[in-house]
Fold:
Amino acid sequence: FLAAELPHAVQNEFFDTAGAVAYIKAAGDPHKAAIAGQATATLHHLPILRRSIQDSHDNITRFIVLAPGHAPARANRATLVVTTNHQPGALLEVLRIFAAAGINISSLQSQPIVGQPWQYKFFLVVDSAGAPLRHALRAIEQSDHTVRLLGEYCAG
Structure:
C-alpha cells in the first residue's frame, strides 16, 4: 500500500501501533499519519483516512504476553527466535537439529533484521518444552547460530 499510494512518504518504525498513533495525535501535524486499527483510532479520537490497506485479506496479528516466572509444569509448546549466519544451508542446519531431536515446528516466520541487509531472524513455534528443547537449543548455539527462548506454555 505505502509503495503504491505514498511512494515518497518517509516511514518510521514505532514500538507498537498505539504508540505511533499517540505520537501522531501529540504532533498535531496533518501531514503525518499512522497505520493502526479501528479501536486505536477511536481511542485517540482520530479519523480513519483509509481502510483495508493490508497486503493480505486474511492478515492476522499475533500478540504475545511476556512475564517473568517459570513455564507451566505441563508446558508442551515454545516460541523462540533464531538468527542464522547468512550462508547457504544455515537455516537447514537449524531445522535438522530440531528434526534430530524429534521436535515438530508448528510455525516458522522470517523477518528482516533492520539495518542488516539480507540478514533475517526466524520466529519459531515448536511443539516441545523442557529438557528436550533445551538440548536442541544448546546444539543450535554450538552450531554458531543465536537462539532466544521467548517462552514455554501449554498449547491451545
Observations:
- The chain has two domains: 2-43, 77-153.
